[in-house]
Amino acid sequence: MEMPIRVSRDFAAKYADASSSATECAMNLARTGDLVLGRVVSALQPLEISPAGGLVLGILKDAGEPCPPNYISERLIVSRATVTGVLDTLVKRGLVRREPHPTDRRMVLVHLTKAGSRMADTVRRTVHRGEADWMGPLSEHERAQLTELLGKLQRNLA
Amino acid sequence: MEMPIRVSRDFAAKYADASSSATECAMNLARTGDLVLGRVVSALQPLEISPAGGLVLGILKDAGEPCPPNYISERLIVSRATVTGVLDTLVKRGLVRREPHPTDRRMVLVHLTKAGSRMADTVRRTVHRGEADWMGPLSEHERAQLTELLGKLQRNLA
DNA sequence: GGGCGGTCGTTAGGGACCAGACTATATGGT
DNA sequence: ACCATATAGTCTGGTCCCTAACGACCGCCC
After folding, report:
1. How far apart are CA B114 and CA B119, in angstroms?
2. CB-based contact (8 Å) between A157 and chain B?
């Protein structure tokens, strides 16, 4: 497999609407994002926790207090229904606890258990260790450059 | 939401194993990949086809002849089990047809139907139009730079 | 105070992905 | 010719995500 993905010179001629540089970027962006995600998944494998679950623990830990699922769904940029499912599995593993909100009876507050708090730390350490590893080949300057370029794109994409 | 995602200056101090530039890149890579995918999904929405299905049609069209699922799974970098599922839905929509391989009876050959071939063209046009749109803010030079940086990362990631 | 629209979390159902087990077939070494 | 191994496709059961449709509850406005 070549890296990065390249498209042939006569590509633009073949597909009138296509810019080969745009297509190349798009494919490589998608592929790289996927590879990054794959790294996180396999780093988390031994902890028996999913990336989504790990992110939820991190959000709870950062908040420093119990949060409603709605808040988690916004931070995760994911539907409330999905959060329900992720919380279900976290509850089953004893990392998190659901309690009714003291005043608003529509809401639930998600509490981090002792084990959940420890797991949040472990997840964070594990993920960061992985990042440092595979980001190795890029210099500080290149990293800044990459972040900058991605930022420009995100402004247009969001 | 800020773009790109930035992490605070005292981040590295807080998490001993973390390099803030690596973390920034990782988060922005994941986010950007996700946004790109989201764009493709919504561009394909009116066609009633999933990104995975669209890619399979493209692979078949490019090959110019019927292919075994195994070949598709390799091009897609996805498990054979997943290809089975994607093919099932394409078959249901009449875009693709399964036929036994003439000589190797373990294999199946996936044929593109007339409708499937037309759909492959439509998908390609739709996706390319979208790319040209959101890649707009990056100059030719910046695109090349981005592709280059992603390539370096991919070599380490794969 | 009685309704009514909006928000909360959950449920139901569906698609894309995976690992692992299973069946059928092909093939290479003896 | 025979058997071990490898390969092809599928099936099972699991996660993660979605949309749509609930029922419960809050608040505001008349």
Report:
1. 9
2. yes
